[in-house]
């Protein structure tokens, strides 16, 4: 009888802990979506914060996401780490830049595959170094989020999968952020969006 009671107490504790955790995660996501209803295209798995979404909304008010509409607004979308692959795609030799490559993050969820590319190629050494930095902040984490603009309408790729393509701006995990303007600094806020309330 005592063992049965002890097991019931443990089970009750686990259920309550799970409910509290889910409640906190739901509250976190609700807070982000309330403040920036169009800026996040998926669950953020507690990787993002208000400032991450504010940084994207600083210059442009986030319009509702319409696949294929070329918005320069940057939307966040998050994936399981196991479904994210950053690479440096070798683009050969450029007359002025020398050997160049383009950063690409391939990510997928249950719905489709995404390809997020840097808008311009980099010197190959910088490209490979950036991919190495991305892999460092991915290691030991469960989810990663991409901030991307100009996300295309889904189309079938050569493997028969539904795919969207967009321009990569930032990549974030709980361990860090890599890309352009990862921090909403006071100077940046004052310069680009002084009216934005956090």
Instruction: Give the H and E element order.
Output: HHEEEEEHEEEEH
Name the helicity range.
25-40%
For the termini, the CA-CA separation is: 54 Å
**Structural class determined from secondary elements:** alpha+beta
- Count helical runs: 4
DSSP summary, beta strand count = 9
The residue ranges in which pLDDT falls below 50 over 5 or more consecutive positions are 10-24
Radius of gyration: 20 Å
Compact description:
The protein is built from four helices and nine strands.
Describe it for me?
This protein is α+β, with helices and mostly antiparallel strands and about 200 residues long. The chain folds into 2 domains: about 1-35; about 40-190, OB fold (Dihydrolipoamide Acetyltransferase, E2P) (Beta Barrel). It contains 4 helices and 9 strands; from the N terminus they run ααβββββαββββα. It has helices spanning about 1-35, 50-55, 125-140, 185-190, and strands at about 75-80, 85-95, 100-110, 115, 120-125, 145-150, 155, 160-175, 175-180. Strands 1, 2, 3, 4, 5, 6, 7, 8 and 9 form a 9-stranded mixed β-sheet that branches. A hairpin with a 4-residue loop joins strand 3 (about 100-110) and strand 4. The longest helix is centred in the first third of the chain and has 34 residues, at about 1-35. It is globular and about 45 Å long. About 25% of the residues are buried.
């Amino acid at each position: 009888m005592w063992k049965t009671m002890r097991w019931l107490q443990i089970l009750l504790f686990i259920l309550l802990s799970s409910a509290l955790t889910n409640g906190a995660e739901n509250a976190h996501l609700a807070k982000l979506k309330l403040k920036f209803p169009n800026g996040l295209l998926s669950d953020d798995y507690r990787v993002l914060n208000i400032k991450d979404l504010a940084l994207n909304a600083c210059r442009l008010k986030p319009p509702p996401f319409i696949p294929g509409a070329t918005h320069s607004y940057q939307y966040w979308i998050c994936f399981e780490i196991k479904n994210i692959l950053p690479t440096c795609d070798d683009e050969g030799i450029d007359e002025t830049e020398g050997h160049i490559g383009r950063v690409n993050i391939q990510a997928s969820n249950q719905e489709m595959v995404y390809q997020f590319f840097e808008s311009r190629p980099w010197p190959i050494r910088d490209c490979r170094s950036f991919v190495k930095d991305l892999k460092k902040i991915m290691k030991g984490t469960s989810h990663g989020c991409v901030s991307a603009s100009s996300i295309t309408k889904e189309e079938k790729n050569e493997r028969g999968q539904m795919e969207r393509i967009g321009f990569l701006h930032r990549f974030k995990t709980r361990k860090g952020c890599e890309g352009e303007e990862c921090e909403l600094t006071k100077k940046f806020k004052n310069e680009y969006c002084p009216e934005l309330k956090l």
